[in-house]
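Re: that backbone. Tokens:
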């Protein structure tokens, strides 16, 4: 595939850059603080969490004529404590606060606002762990359902590095029957995966295997590995949950390397190390971490803050009317690939993230693959002046990619739509997004001009010298002719 960074062909997101053959536009700028997304395939409706709305709300959008712009935004339900998680299963909408999973009855296509009297609690007590509670730690609670109707809930850590993993887990629930007041998260939730600091993004691939993206810890200093190594470590992680139920993925005892000098790390990217505050406790050293925890499938740039993940299914039926406006579904060559939203982080200078990346998959295997920039700010800095900060990603009914953005200080929030224009026979990826990394183009371009200027200057000097020599020769010839003419005239 070709790799080409191109400015967004449209003008609604003028500071965007995309993979070649794609275009981006605002699907809706009316979802304030947009977070979790969900697409109802049967009706084509797009649901979202509007976290900056007052009160916070679940909203629904429709694009009846498939022109890539929402026909409007309708509030379905209001709940002041909503944070992030959103899912639809059966005839119900599920959404989460930092402590609770709620549900509301919903018939796709019905539209209007749902009475809050119909809201019930499905899971409770998600922060009753004695570690300070959700207000002191990560507040997102991601929700996904598997193909047999079990609910998975991810809860992040209470702090940067907790003393144990009691809170940082994915728990699984059978909600076919649950008591009035809800299921107790801690005492009744099945421990599905342990040791996950903040596994915000969860998604099933085309084989119904669960994957997640994890946000690593901040302020990493380990003297034997170079001291302050936080700028590029620990790695953000793409994890596959295909091991024994309850397996441990490392946090808080261990971390995964993204980039360390070869002088201290022979293994390189993906090597698992002990977190410095545990490495001398008599148990959790480097050897223990490598023998007792599950490493990530892909190690990603530290502090990218991955919050959303989705897998592309090119075999999904797409109505021909979807392409009537020239906005086409993604190409089949990307079938099965993962798309990940990087929110960006405060804990790195220069900043990184603030983009969407693609992880190629070969028959569901991404081992050894690097995330490839797909949608980003086209400038030299990762941050968008317009305030865009990607949160979640989902494919709509037309197999176009939706990206939610919760914005920055009231700017850049809403939902972006990325579609394939079909203008490139070989759709590629933009690998020159501003991420604070050194780009040799910045050296080669001025060097090119220096070389060209030097060559031109040398040519000019040579030409000038020749002209001066010719000038002197011509003057001599002129003088000789004038003398001869003078002699004839006497």
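Recovered sequence:
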């Amino acid at each position: 595939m070709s790799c080409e960074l191109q400015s967004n062909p449209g003008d609604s997101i003028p500071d965007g850059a995309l993979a070649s053959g794609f275009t981006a536009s605002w699907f809706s700028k009316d979802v304030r603080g947009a977070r979790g997304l969900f697409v109802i395939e049967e009706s084509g409706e797009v649901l979202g969490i509007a976290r900056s709305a007052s009160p916070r709300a679940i909203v629904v959008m429709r694009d009846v004529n498939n022109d890539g712009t929402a026909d409007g935004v309708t509030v379905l339900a209001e709940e002041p404590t909503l944070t992030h998680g959103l899912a639809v299963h059966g005839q119900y909408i599920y959404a989460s606060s930092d402590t609770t999973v709620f549900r509301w009855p919903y018939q796709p296509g019905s539209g209007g606002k749902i009475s809050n009297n119909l809201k019930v609690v499905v899971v409770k007590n998600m922060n009753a762990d004695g570690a300070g509670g959700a207000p002191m730690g990560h507040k997102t609670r991601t929700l996904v359902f598997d193909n047999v109707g079990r609910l998975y809930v991810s809860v992040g850590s209470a702090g940067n590095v907790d003393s144990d993993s009691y809170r940082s887990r994915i728990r699984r629930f059978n909600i076919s029957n649950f008591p009035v007041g809800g299921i107790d998260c801690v005492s009744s939730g099945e421990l599905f995966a342990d040791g996950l600091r903040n596994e915000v993004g969860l998604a099933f691939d085309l084989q119904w295997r669960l994957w997640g993206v994890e946000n690593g810890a901040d302020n990493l200093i380990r003297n034997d590995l170079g001291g302050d190594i936080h700028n590029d470590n620990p790695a953000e992680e793409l994890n596959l949950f295909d091991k024994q139920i309850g397996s441990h993925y490392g946090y808080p005892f261990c971390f995964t390397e993204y980039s360390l000098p070869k002088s201290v790390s022979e293994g390189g990217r993906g090597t698992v190390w002990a977190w410095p505050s545990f490495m001398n406790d008599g148990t959790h050293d480097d050897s223990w971490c490598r023998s007792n925890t599950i490493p990530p499938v892909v190690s990603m740039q530290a502090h990218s803050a991955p919050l959303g993940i989705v897998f592309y299914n090119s075999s999904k039926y797409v109505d021909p009317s979807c392409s009537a406006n020239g906005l086409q579904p993604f190409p089949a060559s990307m079938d099965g690939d993962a798309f990940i939203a990087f929110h960006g982080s405060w804990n790195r200078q220069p900043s990184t993230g603030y983009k969407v990346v693609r992880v190629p998959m070969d028959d569901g295997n991404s081992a050894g693959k690097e995330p490839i920039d797909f949608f980003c700010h086209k400038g030299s800095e990762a941050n968008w002046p317009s305030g865009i900060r990607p949160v979640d990603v989902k494919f709509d009914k037309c197999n176009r990619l939706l990206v939610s953005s919760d914005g920055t200080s009231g700017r850049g929030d809403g939902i972006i739509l990325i579609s394939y224009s079909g203008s490139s026979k070989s759709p590629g990826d933009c690998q020159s997004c501003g991420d604070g990394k050194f780009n040799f183009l910045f050296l080669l371009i001025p060097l090119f001009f220096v070389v060209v200027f030097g060559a031109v200057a040398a040519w000019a000097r040579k030409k000038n010298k020749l002209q001066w020599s010719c000038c002197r020769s011509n003057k001599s010839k002129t003088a000789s002719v004038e003398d001869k003419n003078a002699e004839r005239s006497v």
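The longest strand covers residues 411-420. The chain has two domains: 5-435, 440-490.
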